[in-house]
Amino acid sequence: MMSDGEARVTGALRFVLDRTYPGMVHAAGVRSSRPHARIVSVDTSQALQYPGVLAVLTGEEAPERSTSGFRFGDSVVDQPVLAWDVTRYAGELVALVVAQRQDQARAAAQAVVVEYEDLPFVVDAFEAVQPDAPVVHEETPDNRCGDWSMTVGDLAEGWRAADRVYEADYYSPPASHVPLEPHVALARWHEGSLTVDTSTQAPWLVASVLSRTFALDIADVRVVSGNVGGAFGSKVDATIEPATAYAARQLGVPVRYELTREEVYYTVGKHAAHVAIRTGVTNDGILCAREVSVIWNSGAYATSTPDAAGSGMIRSLGPYRIPHAELRSVAAYTHSVPSGPFRGAMTSQLTWAYESQLDDIAADLGLSSFEIRRRNVLVDGDIYLDGKPVHDMKYLQMLDEMESAARQFGADAVSRPGAVRGVGIALMIKTTLTPSRSEARVVLQQDGTADVYTSAVEMGQGAVRALRSIAATELDLDPNDVRLESPDTAVTPFDSMSASSRTTFSVGAAIADACAKIRVERSANATAATEAVGVYQSHGGLAALKDPDLGEVTAHWHQGGAVVEVEIDTDTGRPLVTKSHAVCFAGRVVSPEDVRRQIEGCVIFGLGPALYEELVLEDGRVANPNFAGYLIPSSAEIPRTLSTNALEGETAEIHGIAEMNVPVVAPAVGNAVKNAIGHRFTRLPIRAEDIYRVLARPWPAYEEVE
Amino acid sequence: MATMMAPRRLVDASRAMLEYGDEALLMGGGTATVLMLKQGMVNVEHLVSLREVVDEEFRAIRVAEGYLHIGAGVPLSDVSTHEVIRRYAPALGAASAVVGNIRVRNMATLGGVIAESDYASDPPAVLVSLDAECVIHNSGETRVAKVEDVQTGFYETSLETGDVIASVRVPLGFSDHHQAYARLTSRTASDRPCTGVALRLAIDGGRVREAAVVVGGVAPAPVRLPDVVQLNGATLSLIEPRMIAERLVRGLRPISDERASSDYRRHLTAVLIARLLTEAKHDARRVVR
């Protein structure tokens, strides 16, 4: 069975971006230029004169404002479909221009004149939780939209057991997902029911948000996704669908809204995070106490951040046996771009902190990076922070493999005289989305082929091939005889989302469940076309921390590790990751080629936030909303040695592998840089100029001149 | 939405520009223009595209009358690979080869690069180091101006309404000089240059007869480093590249931007100069052998 890779890179694959509706018109966004301001007036008169323009929609005039509130959101219904009265971040959608053609709408959008009265703003999450910080939402005067804490053991006892205590702060800046396909939505109404085609990872979540926003029964909302051209978490939460649906209803015609590249940067970003971490350790390098305090930048709206901050708290201890800990995780509203999950959500920011600190502790104790981890990583049977024993722990095996890979990196010559090298490692642990649900309907036809209906979204991760392969195995068919229906809430059954590395695992489990039922039916009647619905459902999640009877904190723990070699040009400070080996626990590998590509993709993707990517805010505005200012890794940055491995467990269930090797890249690179030049960076990205300043090594000739 | 016309003759393009004045923009390959239009940096009624221009002078690469002539409409991908350019102006080929990516180089033209006058561009520094000149048409009239006199600042040129760069010419006298170009990016390799250095050395019997060092990416327009005269008469095998590099950049006051601070840029420029001089020493040694 072929992957869609060739079609994807040659442009033959049709994306949601390629969809049209008959008779559709086009929307273009008018975006706020102020991080926090009163909207005094929106003058649409000029724009309305532009050719092709049908309407300019503003929040001020929306009839919903008196009924549903004209706001949407997943956890908190706080985001205006179109802003009115006040704008809470630079880049917020203030008005929508609708015209016959896209270029007409975009040209006219430039002519909408918005008058603002500036208000005080705060874009940093740490500043936002200080007592006198500007308030983002009146309903939340302390700017905290999520506040979680938990205690493991008895921290005071932990400190008493510690011979040494280490304390440090780490920072990850806001970043952007940069999906190549921008967000795009098409909406149309028919007799009070709404259909939206949208480039989303979570059609059922978007349908639910739309039903609440427009006070519709969920049965009257149909959300159609399809081939998504990259997402990385930026297409989980509803973003432009409510505004597009609103425009379609107001105009009574189908409306398409495709974001410009610039608007993508204003729509959703990665959570910036301050992580303060204090760790107690014995002289033998045994971790005995840890206190973590995280402040996540939610941006101007909550989206899924409040609960995500809770997930972050659970992931903040690291993959270690630490008997005593206090964990605190706060999500703060700020006047900046709303944050959403970013491949390996709420984990990279934490690994950057705890894996950087652990290497410093090891160095201080005279232990190797491998040795300190061997003494502390979770092994089967250890009681973890949820009070339950862990199983299928592969960290020791990962460390052995990483150490042997590091030896094989070898001693080939550096690429130019004077360059220095360092090797660094990192591990990670992550929960998966829990509770979550996936349903699958499988129809076995009389001709021996099968149709599989699920709401799994293909975005280049290989979901289609993996799921077809699972169905084929379960029904003993050739994978080419299995068809997978494209996600459409009118046709395909419920699925929480294609995110959190859960699709192959949970949708795959639902398919397997359906196939098992079919096998039973077929054993009774071998020729009948049979059909069955399968379900995967996990229970628990954050609530299970307080009440273990509710289920598990996570369906399983994601495990990953990486070892990298970084070469630094000491003349210029330029870092380059020359070699890497990444490993994760896959439970059971379904599609080896796709697994390898996913892990390679994780490493390459992770190099961005490690060395290059930051959404730069100047005076509260994004200063680099384009490819020239926001640099993502190119083929020249891909490590020359890029090896991977996915570990399996004999009795283990399938684990997703789409994210595990992202969060380890930045700390592994940071640790390698430390080993190369002796300096610890605590802020990402690690830029060439910063390294150069640390080296501050004047050329020998400098002093001799004159 | 701007209207677009694509005349087949340079003279018609020039006349159209004279007719439309400020309401029109002249477009070469469009790689810069399209970006500027998309980002709303320019707002014009008319685009006058040079894509269909057939004038031999605008398209050809040839050697005549003591010059290498390169049509202003030649795409950078051709500039970077053409045999004649590789022979007579190898540094120009090298600088053109690192612009953007192959898709950009297939569209962007040499004349367009000069007319855009983007400071973070590779070829201009080399053009200045080679004393390159623009042959400019305006409504049937022709004049010649040095590239360094055409590029006057950040996206600013001395070109007047109706001016169309027809070709670029490089004196053949430099073709046996040691020529080199190198750049550094401060972020990914696909970034625009943080600094780029063009080096030209006339070498006689192991001695430097004449030298030019021009730096791009560090100021509104390429900067000639004046102290390079110190190299004249030096024995190449005896020079200390780092020491010279440090001296040459002493007067340089680079800009600061998101790519690099001023003093880091100056340092990177010195690194490049030193590397290019070291390379020149090695090359000279190879030639002698």
Features:
heterodimer, A: 706 residues, alpha+beta, five-stranded mixed beta sheet, 27% strand, globular, disordered C terminus, B: 289 residues, four-stranded antiparallel beta sheet, 26% strand
Could you provide a short overview of the structure?
The complex is a heterodimer of chains A (706) and B (289). By secondary structure, chain A is of the alpha+beta class.
What does this 3D model show about the protein?
- In chain A, a hairpin with a 5-residue loop joins strand 16 and strand 17.
- Chain A has 19 helices and 29 strands.
- Chain A is globular.
- By secondary structure, chain A is α+β, with helices and mostly antiparallel strands.
- Chain A is 27% helix and 27% strand.
- In chain A, helix 13 runs parallel beside helix 14 and helix 16 packs across helix 17.
- The termini of chain A are far apart.
- The longest helix of chain A is centred in the last third of the chain and has 22 residues.
- Chain B is of the alpha+beta class and 289 residues long.
- In chain B, strands 4-5-10-6-7 form a 5-stranded antiparallel beta sheet. In chain B, strands 11-12-13-14 form a 4-stranded antiparallel beta sheet, sandwiched between helices.
- In chain B, a hairpin with a 2-residue loop joins strand 6 and strand 7.
- Chain B is globular and about 60 Å long.
- Chain B starts with a strand and ends with a helix.
- The chains are: A alpha+beta (706), B alpha+beta (289).
- Chains A and B meet through helix 3, helix 18 and helix 19 of A and helix 11 and helix 12 of B.
